[in-house]
Predict the 3D structure of the following.
Amino acid sequence: MESLFQGTSVKSNRVIYTPSSFAKANLLHLQEAGELQALQPHTSSRSGLRSFLFFLVTEGAGTLDYDGLRHSLSAGDCAFIDCRKAYAQSSSEDNLWSLRWIHFYGSSMSGIYEKYVERGGRPVFRAERGDPFLGLLTELLAIAGSEDYIRDMRINEKITCLLTAIMEKSWHPERTSPARSKKQSLQQVKAYLEEHYREQITLDMVAGQFYLNKFYLARSFKEQFGTTVLGYLNQIRITHAKQLLRFSGLTAETIGREVGIPEPGYFSRVFKKVEGVSPGEYRRMW
């Protein structure tokens, strides 16, 4: 239900949302969505909320106090924070701001936010032209105020799109040129694995191929792609193995050799670790 409120400090349009028990247990779900225009300088502060907050400054300026630091924000800046920690947001005295925001939660959110921070994400970042944040916030507010009988599913979809866009911003824009160069090297490693997956590959070989320290390579590859170098190599191999199991008459032993895992027992173990079933079971299922 939409609530239009005009007080002495702000004019706001918000939906305080109560998701279904199904949504709370299984989906990314909305707690509140809204937009506000400051009418005079004001501060909102909270702590201990089981919630995550994303907001976009659409006009004006202000500050965010979070995790011991003060961040200055202006039109086009976004904030993404864990509200279990104390925070305070304040409009500028001489440049009153307008905001769009959502509070949301889900059982996976702690891990998602941890990954965001691990990848270099900051509490405040800049939205660029073409970024979808304003559109997604507008859609979420509209869906929350609608009578759509599957709105919890639609809300889950839009929050997922929002998190995907946020995660794309998680590499801090002030990264130095050497850091960007290292990131490019990791993309080259990824492409190398995709091209040479049939060959016998070790971490030492890949590190030597790209003149990288193998410990740096192992750590940085996992930070950027969420898996180890050899874990990603096995994902590629198993993807190709699944195609051959489904669309060829080759034996599992031959398929293992085709995808770079020539030892039959090891191929079966790797396949079952990735897919949860043996190669033969996978073929019968499909």
About this structure: The first strand starts at residue 2 and ends at 6. Residues 2-168 form a domain with the Jelly Rolls fold (CATH 2.60.120.280).
